[in-house]
Structure prediction request, 402 residues.
Amino acid sequence: MDYRTVLTTCPHCGCGCNFYLEVLDGQIIGTIPCKTSPMNEGKLCIKGWNVHEFIQSPKRLTSPLVRKDGVLTEVSWDEALDYTASGLKKIRDTYGSDSIGFMTSAKVTNEENYLVQKFARAAVGTNNVDHCARL
Amino acid sequence: MTDDVKKKVEELLGSGKIKGFLGLSKQNGHVGPRLFCKGEEVDNLVTGDRNLSGDSRYPLNKQLINLARGYPDDTFGVLVRGCDERGLKVLYTWNQLDPKKIIPVGIACPQELADACECSRPYPEEFVAGEKAEPVSSASVDRVDGLDLIDRFGFWMNEFARCVKCYGCRDICPMCFCNECSLESDGLIRTGDIPPEIPIFHLTRAVHMAGRCIDCGLCNEACPADIPLRTLYKKVADILDKEFQYRTGFTTDQKSPLNILGPAPTE
Prediction:
């Protein structure tokens, strides 16, 4: 028997609520808000309360998908990145840098968000950067 | 207080009477629930006081149900206050836990916490630490009861209007163990909308708490909108006491009177 309560941060928005995930023999079975977290003080929203249900969902994507002949097809990371990079280059060269925009996410780290805006500005040459937390 | 609990838990784990002890621990600056399986882990066991007495309580009984479902043949120890013990009694009555497989380790709450909770019995039957505090009556219920009908309805509608429908009150509740929840039943409540329909959402839950709520107050603490749910459920419990002389969690030999089907109506 291996039962643990693992303190972690909610992956949903940028607030950073803390909760304990109940883990029984490697399976996540529950979410318990952390009382001593200064952010959420033992409270959560409906999305936070249900984190344990989506983490292990079989519906989650496990590899990149590229649409080939109208069908989403699993491909390797190398192929997906080559496809994306060549597509972005083609659009930039044809329509200019400001024809491209970057949407980043509250579900990733500050460092990852930094990288996205750096890539947009330094590699692509546009200030079109926005974020899902604006919603 | 904590040392007495640690001693008892070490003794239980050492004797092999329990597979694990579900309690609270302080780690990384946070107080949280933890299953202690070895005597040497007990060092960082705490009883849930951080800044205030009992400000870091967790739904241990709810976790205990998960453990018992996974490992029905093992015996577990659990940290209980007066409210948790009432909870265990109700869970035994409803066949959610087997009393032969649970060893509670009791602590009595200090008067400060009993006052804050307006607790009718702030201590379990047996406890290894703490002193019996005096029971406290529900001034919060009296205050709302003191309003006339229109004002009282207005008061509750005003409170319910802040609800964000997080279901936190249900999700934290150690007495909410139903496989199907009425709060997700389209027949009773429009389920697709946020915020919820008021007052039906809250009153449906209040009715379900009659004979079930053991007044631990965790729902109140989990509510992001600070709705005084505890006051509402205390009132429901008072009605049950007055009408049926039933006090939830005070006995193990009696199910909630609302669960007894009487004879068919004659008319």
Observations:
- Chain B touches chain A through 37 residues (CB under 8 Å).
- Residues 229-244 of chain B form the longest helix (16 residues).
